[in-house]
Structure formats: structure tokens, C-alpha cells
Amino acid sequence: MTTNFKQLAEQYKHELLDKVVPFWLDKSQDTQHGGYFTCLERDGSVFDTDKFVWLQGREVWMFATLYNKVEKRQEWLDCAIQGAEFLKKHGHDGHLNWYFALDREGHPLVEPYNIFSYTFAVIAFGQLSLATGNKEYADIAKRTFDIVLSKVDNPKGKWNKAAPGARALKSFALPMILCNVALEIEPLLDPDFMRRTIDTCIHEVMDVFYRPELGLIVEHLGTDGQLVDCFDGRLLNPGHAIEAMWFIMDLGKRLGRQDLIDKAVQIALNEAEYGWDKQYGGIFYFMDRLGRPCQQLEWDQKLWWVHIETLITMLKGYQLTGNAKCLEWFERVHEYVWSHFADPEHPEWFGYLNRRGEVLLPLKGGKWKGCFHVPRGLFQCWQILEDLAGRA
Question: What SS3 class is residue 136?
């Protein structure tokens, strides 16, 4: 069967521009206090007004990206700017230490313990500076990026709850996200500094957290780079690893390194095969590398972002290598995603399914799901499919 890339490109484009983007534009903006509501019911009605800084940053980035890369729509730029101004005023402590959560008016609720509040502030202000030419936005992005790099060895800083001298682990999440952040704000960085940062991130992801003996990426390692036999040390997150592989593919393309792209494709295929639920379909959220019980009670849930990131990775892998297995995986996951996560009655997608693929929470946004993975995934897939259609 020949894949109809043109038809698929239209499907993803229509879903993005006619359903998902209008949903966030209309339902999430707080026109009274600024910023965005992310806790949205199935129909988009607000069920909680707290604002989570990392999701605020993601939404600023998303609308700035749409403005920069799709079309210069003023409503998209206005949406991004108002969110950024709310963050600039309320999101940090005055020294660019970004809080995790704020109340509706912008008063801090949770201290700046979460490094991802910082990383998404970086890409938000970086992308918006490209859209507006605003030097202050660029400065916020660069200064925050410096703070992120200074925190690499202790991301939570003084908010770390580990006991002094306790078992020390390092996490895959930070080098993984830095692969993406560095490319996002490349125009703002010194080229030599950029190259060193990218080299370090690639090394951590592909030579340290990727374990050839497993053929998989682990979420945590000892600070000596060795596997550790404890809950966190055994943890696998297939979606996280698969998402990281399209970041690596982008870097491979940027650096002209086909070897890096090929290795990323192989790891992504390994992860999909390992993480796929052979009984009910879909990709598990968490797994244990020794097959032991997971500490996360939600380990067997099927999450929106895991599957959407897999769509991007497999399509990109096919685009860059022509590997037919990537296309097979894209088609399998595409079928699962559109029949389980897409809501036939209201715009935007469900986020949380149980293992059998039934909707567990009907919400469209919350503390962890915002205006990010669905629109970013639809945008990425649309662009790649359009390219593939043009080649056909």
C-alpha cells in the first residue's frame, strides 16, 4: 500500500490550523490578568485558574513559532506577547529564577525548583525575540540559558530534597531538553559556545544515557555513569527516549552527520518495539529495565505526548533515511492516535488513556498538558508530510 503523503499532510494541517490552534487562542487566554489558563475541560471551559510557568512558556513559544514559521497572523503574535509580558512581570523572582506555579493574578505559589520552568522560558523568549526583534526578550532568553547551564549538575539547587550524601543520580531529562533548546535559540548564541554545548548534549544522550547493552536509553544513572539498581535507576520512559531521537536527528542534520541520524533512528525503532503494548496497543508510559514493578502507578497509561512525539520521530526518521520500518511505525501509531486521542466532538485531543485505550481523564489541559505537544506535533508532521508529498 502506498502512503498518501499529500492527503496526510492536509489532515495534520487542517487539525492544527482549524481546530487545535483556535481552541487555545479562544479558550486559554486570560484577558483580565494576562497569561494563559491551561486547566481546560473537554469543551474548553476553565476548571482551575492556577498558572504553571513551564506551560505558560510553552504556549508563548508555540504561538511565536506559528507566527514565525506558518503565517504572520497578528492574533498569534498578540497571544504570544501578552503571555510573555505576564511571565516577564510575574514568572520569576526578579533574578530570572522562574517559579513553577502562580495564581491567576501572578502571585507565586511554588518556588523555582523545576528546571523546566527555565528551559521553556528560554525557548519562549528566544522565539518571540525572533518574531519581534525585541532585544529585551533576547536578553531574557540568553541570561536564563546561562542559568540553566549553571544548574546542570544540581537542577533543583537549594530545593533539592535528597538527604546530604544520599545516592547521587543524574537525569536524562536535562541533556535531552538542552539538545532542543540549543537549536531553538542558536541565532542568539556565540557559534563556538553553541557548538560546545551541542557536543556535550549529544555526548550525554548518545554515549552516556544510551546503553548499548540494552539498546535503550535509561532515565537515570549514577553520577559515575553506571547503571544503578533502584526504582529510579531501573526506570525507562520510552516516549522520552523516542522524543529525544528527533532532537538528535535535527542536530545530525544541522551538523551534517548522517551517522548520528542513523544511530538515532535505530534507537527510536528499538524503543518503539520495546515500549509497544502487545496486548492493547499503544506505548507504555513507564517501564522497568529488569521487568520489576514500577513505582509509578500510572506506568501502564497511554499518554498523548508519548504517541505524538513518536509520530514526529518516525516520520523524521523516514524523511532523513528512507528506512521503511520508520514508515511502518508511523502508520501504526497514526492509526492508534487518531482513533484514541482525537476527540470527535470537541477540538484538541485527550491526554490520558488507560491501558486499554479508554479515556481516563476527559480534560484538554491541566497541570502537565498545555498548548504544546499536540500543536507542535501536528505542525512537525504536516511539514514533513508536505516535504515527502513533494518528493513523491
Answer: helix
